[in-house]
Amino acid sequence: MGEPKHKRHTDTSKWFALQYRYAPYLFVAPFVILFAAFGCWPIIKSLILSLHTTNGPKDVVFSGLSNFRFLLADPDFHKAVGNTAEYAFWSVFLQLPLSLGLAILLSQKWLRGREFLRLAFFSPHLLGTVFVGVLFSVIFIPQYGLLNKVLHAVAGVPLDTKWLANPSLVMPALVLTALWMYVGFNMIYFLAALQAVDRELYDAAQVDGANGWQTFLAVTMPGIKPVAIFVLVMSTIGSFQLFELPYTMLGNGPGPDKAGLTVVMYLYQSGFVTGDLGYASAIGWTLALGVLVISLIQMKLTGAWKGSA
Amino acid sequence: MRQFPYGKAALCILFAAITAGLWLAAHPVKNKTATLTFWIFAKNHYDACKAAAASFEELHPGVKVDVQLVAGQAVTHRLQAAFWSDLDVPDLVETEISAAGTFFRGPLEHVGFVDLTDRIHKEGLWDGMVQARFAPYTSRGRIFGLPNDIHPVMLAYRRDIFEQEGIDVSKIRTWDDFIRIGRKLTIPGKRYMIELSDSNQWSFEVCLFQRGGGYFDSEGRCIIDNEIAVQTMCWYVPLVVGPNRIGNSLGTSQGSGQMLTRALEDGYILCLICPDWRTKQIEMDVPRVSGKMALMPLPAVTPGGPRTSTFGGTMIGITKHCKNQDLAWEFAKHLYLDSRGLAQMFRMTNTVPALRKAWNQPAFAEPREYWSGQKIGLLYAALAPEVPAQYTSPVIVTAKSKLGEALVECIQRYKEHGDAGFEEFARASLRDSAEQVRAMIRRNPY
Asked: Is some CB atom of chain A closer than 8 A to the CB atom of B441?
């Protein structure tokens, strides 16, 4: 004779209720624990470190806001901010319009082989940034590099043009490389957005007699606006985090006259080369606040909040 | 599903997570079995060190030395992180000269390397090795590393082209002689007498050391704006820019790989600043000019002056985490002080060791076909005692970078204005760079 049926049923219900109550916590626990250990704690620790002069994490002397004061007067930091802002400017005003233009072109039904072209333009992003950096550092070499050979043949540009050794040419070289890598990537976002625009709106615009440009402004742009804002904000944030590309292209350093020094590269150098973790933390916090402010301004100017409301 | 309220998929994930966790718990990371762990960054040292480790193990039964090759850039940062976290710190490590100073930040008792000063003096190594080579590994009078090398600098040149042009290198005694010939041989855009950088401080640094200048004095004070540096700048810049230039760069730093290969093969560059280690690099990167290359001492600044400088270097250090520091010291000596082993290492790397008595080994007197039959070991060893000392500081990386910035500024200025007011500009530019280094030094409260 076994247990009574109603008793077994009660036990199962209790077990079920117990699981129902605690299982969600069990599932989120790994993330919460890892995020607390490797996300929250380092953030708090870096804030504490930014108020100290350090020699690694062991020798720590409280110095208040001296790291931030030094940073405001530090010409290297100013240079890094200037370079990063310049790169971000070109990312937004050159890269994104090109991505959008390419997306519009590759969404035209009359274009033959557009699937192949989409893949071709996207494919540079499949390569790692470090690989691209090494590849372009070879393409840019003077005298024997592919770019100089082509430019020399086409436009008579001197063969010994030093793209990566001339301070005024370093940023164009970085922007050019980033264009090659990211235009196709951002194009994918715009392609997806373009496909989601209601076809009937285009038909209506045609019936109303709108020309191509008017259709673009009145139908396409509003239709892709949420995605465009997302790409704009993410590109800006990504630009301010620039590190691997200049680091690999410029021989593991900031390049001539620090023309390729970015804020993250300066943070890395201060923390892991000079060993001044306090100063590196101050740079990190300043960068984070700067990016936050710029992103908020962008979202305000583009009306992102209105759209979401 | 009655028994699990979130469905089969969630149950599977939970099961996979628990299984994976249990497996990891059942297979903990094995404790290291090696008696000594040794990090090394130079690929061409690796094979020689493996061989030395094997012979050391034979001499010390039961001892196992684990030689680990860590990429050049990574070794510094990994070591820094290891010191900071007290995790996975090797017992011994080879450190590159320009990074060594960064480990000497903070109070002496917190430097991650063992102070070797007493051992070095007690065992007579201070006199047995080239003393100038201890300078880069010394902080506040204490020595934290044993120097592997000296890296005297010579000029590597295309002997065949020089002979075709009727140049007798034995008559090149001073830089004035060299520049005079260089102006005859240089054809702008097609051929340059020497590889000199216009965007990076490395070749300027070699010239600065030859003149007795440097980044820091023996007390750790920044000296990149002293009169020697100013005069070196005024001499150097017209060599790489302007109508009388004789030099050009090969990339962002010293030429290597494809660029070096093509430039030497084509005769685009005729001479290279060449520390001993670079001869091996040239042999490997440009095999087709074998027998067409030769070496000559650096021209002197003034007649009778030093005919060499220095570029690069490596030390071996014992970390304070090492549990058997005496054994580690024995291994360091086996590696750096065994004359036969050093001779073997010279054959593999072309690097002249800091230990003077090793230079008598036959390997150093072997003629090298690549270098037109020259006995390059003897040539470099003859210059080794003249190698200048280079003092360091925890902000050495910043100092190098600032000197590079001053160089680029001066080159831009010279391009636009030539000689007019150049010396004043160079002086101000170097002073500005030095002040920034001094500001960094003042930030260090230790």
From this structure: no
